[in-house]
Amino acid sequence: MKQIIALGGGGFSMEPENPLLDLYVLQQSEKETPQICFLPTASGDSDNYISRFYSSFKKHHCTPSHLSLFKPPTKDLESFLLEKDIIYVGGGNTRNLLILWREWGLDSILQKAWEKGIVLAGISAGSICWFEEGVTDSFGNELEPLKCLGFLKGSNCPHYDGESKRRPSYQELIANGKIKSGYATDDGVALHYMDQELSKIISSRPNAKAYKVYFDEVVKEMELDTDFLGGS
């Protein structure tokens, strides 16, 4: 089973006191104590970000590690990553992430990991990267479309309710044919794909939602059923 969990916002970096999404990610591995590897590439391998990852995941039943491309732990990155159970991609600059991944061959390694059944997850840039296209601020202050890895069909827009420009910009790009139709997620919402099909939508916030945004003579936004993980 190939799995991708795309977080529009939330997780340890945005909700350090609310572990619901991170625990959900860990639960998708078949291992009782999964090996989870953090890829902080989009943040320039920020030491602070890496430290927060370890601080959070050491509280859970897992074995955390990270892969820095600025200080790689080994020349054999493929073997290093393919022995993990979960790969969790952090937020930051999606364009720089993709450029560095392609230079180091991580794009093909991650595809092998995905096809092997290793759970791929990530927030913001770590959500956008798996789709054909995403809405990003990687080029400056404006939101623009970006070609991504294409493991998942269509486009993706995170932080749909968290940043005021996200909703209008995504809809305008779709209306103008500059980006494909796709899925938008509020902060605290994650899309769980199994074998490239959207299987489930979960949230760490009771009122957070996901939306299908598409063009049919005009841009349409359809609210999707979302399961709040904190519910009884």
Defining key terms:
8-stranded mixed beta sheet, 6-stranded mixed beta sheet, Rossmann fold, 232 residues, 14 strands
Describe, in plain words, how this protein is organized in 3D:
By secondary structure, this protein is of the alpha/beta class. It has a single domain (3-228), classed as 3-Layer(aba) Sandwich (Rossmann fold), CATH 3.40.50. The chain contains eight helices and 14 strands. It has helices at 11-14, 20-27, 47-57, 77-82, 94-104, 106-116, 125-128, 166-175; strands spanning 3-7, 35-39, 63-66, 86-89, 119-123, 131-136, 144-147, 152-157, 182-185, 189-194, 197-203, 210-216, 218-224, 227-228. The protein has an eight-stranded mixed beta sheet with strand order 3-2-4-5-1-10-11-14, with helices on both faces. The radius of gyration is 16 Å and the shape is globular. The mean pLDDT is 95.
Structure, briefly:
28% of the residues lie in helices and 31% in strands. With 232 residues, it is α/β, with parallel strands linked by helices.
As a whole number of angstroms, the C-alpha radius of gyration is: 16 Å
Strand % is 25-35%
What is the mean predicted local confidence, pLDDT? 95
CATH level-four homologous superfamily name: Class I glutamine amidotransferase (GATase) domain
> What is the ordering of alpha helices and beta strands?
EHHEHEHEHHEHEEEHEEEEEE
CATH top level class name: Alpha Beta
Shape: globular
What is this structure's SSE topology?
Layout lengths: L2 E5 L3 H4 L5 H8 L7 E5 L7 H11 L5 E4 L10 H6 L3 E4 L4 H11 L1 H11 L2 E5 L1 H4 L2 E6 L7 E4 L4 E6 L8 H10 L6 E4 L3 E6 L2 E7 L6 E7 L1 E7 L2 E2 L4
Parallel strand pairs: 1-5, 2-3, 2-4, 4-5, 6-8, 8-9, 11-14
Antiparallel strand pairs: 1-10, 6-7, 9-12, 10-11, 12-13
